[in-house]
Amino acid sequence: MRDYVLFDLAEDWHYHRYGVDFSEDFWTDPIRRTESYRELDYLRAKRFPGTEIGSLEPQPHPVASGQYGHRFVPAMFGCKISYLPNQAPSAEPLRWSFDQMAALDMPDLRTNEVVRRALDDAKRMKEKYGFVESWINTGSPLNAAISIFAEDFIACCAIEPEIAQHVLMVMAKTMIRLRYEFEDYLNPPSRTEITHYAIGNCPAIMFSPEMYREVILPTDLWVRMQVKDFNIHHCGIFDRYAELYTALNPQSLDVGGGSDYRHLRRYFPDAICSYIVNPEFFEGKSREEIDKVIYGIVTEGGPPEKISHLHTYGAGRNATDENIMDLYTSIERQGLNTPKSV
Fold it and tell me: What is the percentage of the chain residues whose pLDDT exceeds 70?
């Protein structure tokens, strides 16, 4: 049951525990990047023996798009990617006028420098490992638009909603095209349909439900129509968006900590859910405090067979080894039912 709780230990955690420097050199060489992740996987397993945190026999996961972390799409559209010693890559936003946004078009995947570099990386990885993973964290149309245009896009949604919707559709069509063509470039032939697709609507909580419904939802609905099974990652408080998301008919949800899980289940009784345990709920907390949070999530967010897992998201330097182990063992200690125990 312990591997029911999964851990995302952030760059900041590795920087402060092992001195790993996540500056540009870490990311740009695809072989070095892949082997560095294997080493970190091993170090985590040594640090937390008897757990599924890491692996003593780590396998390579060569990811063609990995040079940009989760900012592949902003890089495609011309954002400069910044690298810091203790952080994942970030995108420096473009400062465009509304008129410039109105003229935005999809990049040509055949000539785009970022895509070509990823393909070059993929070639090296295939030569080394015999395979390469084509996965790209595209986020969502909204996530990409805010990464690329920052607060200017938020203002555009309020002042020029039609232009904002144009930007969102450009993002959406680019993402779907990437899913088909990038896969086909790397591992031909690609599938004729997208069987599973996820959007990361992290910035949705920056918008009122009313603005989300009128400006953003139409594009998300278009994406939904292109795929078979659909997942929504919403790492903020979910409550105000639950009813809105029913229009997207997601088969699975990934929901931020502190949400009203009973409220969620009123709208999505059959969705398979994963739940995020926010850093503030376990970093520096006692075992009793952690157990209380986990008890509430599992009992209120059930039934057990409808919960895939719990996970952390970006645990940083303040997450002690004791915090991590207390969180890892909480469900088993409390005898809570999970899909692995029912």
Answer: 97
* pLDDT at residue 342 greater than cutoff 50: no
Nearest partner of 101 among 167, 30, 151, judged by Cα: 167
pLDDT of 341 reads 53
Spatial distance between the Cα atoms of 178 and 244, rounded to a whole number of angstroms = 27
Q: What is the DSSP letter of 193?
A: S
CA dist list (Å): 291 to 21, 57, 294, 336: 33, 31, 5, 11
CA distance 136 to 2: 28
pLDDT for position 230: 96
Asked if pLDDT for residue 273 goes beyond 80, the answer is yes
Six-digit token string for 177: 């095209």
**pTM for the whole structure:** 0.94
Q: Which residue matches tokens 């919707």?
A: 165
List, as own/partner pairs, every contact residues 289-296 make where C-beta atoms lie below 8 angstroms and the sequence separation is at least 24, other chains included. Answer: 290/323, 290/326, 290/327, 290/330, 291/326, 291/330, 291/333, 291/334, 293/257, 294/327, 294/330, 294/331, 294/334, 294/336, 295/334, 295/336, 296/261
**What is the rounded CA–CA span in Å between residue 60 and residue 37?**
8
287/171 Cα distance (integer angstroms): 43
Buried b (16+ CB within 10 A) or exposed e, 252-283: bbbbbbbbebeebbeebeebbbbbbbbbebbb
| DSSP code for 205 | G
pLDDT given at position 1: 46
Q: How confident is the model at residue 34 (pLDDT cuts 50, 70, 90)?
A: very high
Establish whether the linkage from the previous residue to 339 is cis, with ω within 30° of 0: no
Q: What is the per-residue pLDDT for 122? A: 94
- DSSP strand pairing (5-6 vs 252-255): unpaired
